[in-house]
């Protein structure tokens, strides 16, 4: 056997196609008028500076895992798959249910998957795009056939409702896609990702990690809440969103004008307008839904993608660029040639009712009311759809029958 024939052939490179997509947003709406009641702000300022009109707030019985599981299951149904067809689950979040286990592990159980490897991706608001790119790499390397990528966030429990410069921006929700291996043309094309640590303390959450473990002191100083230098973040975002998207498009062998729809991270309408200007594109190429959800961090791109497809903004053969930026500073973009039937998204939504998806709760653990005090009065207003906490408190084992009849 000569040297050439003994060299193993390189593994075949598969393509990663988006075959499923789904989203979930909690039913409770927090409007700008609601925020006017708890912090010194007003609707005119928020709309003109950010474009945000309202955002969603998770109910007491909801968590990052529960929202991610609903969105993930919807994406699986859209793809026409069963949960056990998924062999890798990647969940992007900066607001996990717990520091450990991973939220992905909780989602795996909740959706009824018994086979997948599951882990979380931490890259703040760029997390979903980083997860998408990771899934694409696994598929191309032949290590996975169907990957579920979820972006899920419950930011309203990590906000300081006395800080008007941050608490007006963020909301809760989840979105997901299924990426499937195929040798057909199209699917995910060029990837670009950047990390610039000089921005590490521009958006951060100081306490709770190994540098500043939680204590009465960290809590009294409000160090368990998101902090942000808005102006520096704004400057980074406008520059990096355009350059990152451009590099992904270039690596796909395309020009910006070849892209039919951009799905940008939904942080601020002015940032998205600057990106459109930087790429010399009209705003109707930018999908916008931040007016309804605010900034849902890692969930923002997959929620927007699922909504854009379900609203008929994407058709087979279209080029779509997803692009995000976030704490780190991180940024990421992937350009996709769309190959799935857009009509399937509504099937996925209809197939999964949120009340049918359950995340297993811990036992022997005191129940806590997770709703921030500042939001409690608004959340409990008449007409709220929230489930009473007593019905859902984690850690309360079912009473034994003997106790019930005693
Ligand atoms: C946060 C952000 C909307 C602030 O907008 P801005 O135009 O930069 O506003 P500034 O921070 O310069 O503040 C201008 C004034 O508005 C005030 N202000 C800040 N928040 C306010 C609010 N919610 N309501 C009313 N006034 C507010 C400030 O106190 C300041 O007042 P002053 O001039 O009297 O000092 C903007 O910087 C931004 O979007 N940055 C990026 C944030 C982001 O995307 N983060 C997520 C990253 S993934």
Architecture overview:
By secondary structure, the protein is of the alpha/beta class. The chain contains 15 helices and 13 strands. The strands form 4 sheets. It has a 5-stranded mixed beta sheet with strand order 1-7-6-4-5, sandwiched between helices. A hairpin with a 3-residue loop joins strand 12 and strand 13. Helix 4 (64-78) packs across helix 5 (103-110) and helix 9 crosses helix 10. It binds coenzyme A.
Contiguous runs where pLDDT drops below 50 for at least 5 residues: 383-406
CATH architecture: 3-Layer(aba) Sandwich
Binned, the helix content reads: 25-40%
The CATH homologous superfamily is termed Thiolase/Chalcone synthase
What is the name of the CATH topology? Peroxisomal Thiolase, Chain A, domain 1
Per CATH, the class reads: Alpha Beta
- Class of secondary structure makeup: alpha/beta
**DSSP strand count:** 13
Question: What is the general shape?
Answer: globular
Bound small-molecule species:
coenzyme A
SS strand fraction: 15-25%
What radius of gyration results from the CA coordinates? 21 Å
Short recap of the structure:
It contains 15 helices and 13 strands. With 406 residues, it is an alpha/beta fold. It has a single domain, classed as Thiolase/Chalcone synthase (Peroxisomal Thiolase, Chain A, domain 1, 3-Layer(aba) Sandwich).
Q: What secondary-structure arrangement, pairings included, does this model have?
A:
Layout: H1 3-6, E1 15-24, E2 28-31, H2 32-36, H3 43-50, E3 54-57, H4 64-78, E4 88-92, H5 103-110, E5 117-121, H6 127-140, E6 146-154, H7 164-167, E7 172-182, E8 187-195, E9 203-204, H8 216-220, E10 227-228, H9 230-251, E11 261-264, H10 269-278, H11 290-293, H12 300-310, E12 319-326, E13 330-337, H13 344-351, H14 373-379, H15 401-405
Parallel strand pairs: 4-5, 4-6, 11-12
Antiparallel strand pairs: 1-7, 2-3, 6-7, 8-13, 9-10, 12-13
Helix pairs in contact: 4-5, 4-13, 9-10
The structure holds coenzyme A.
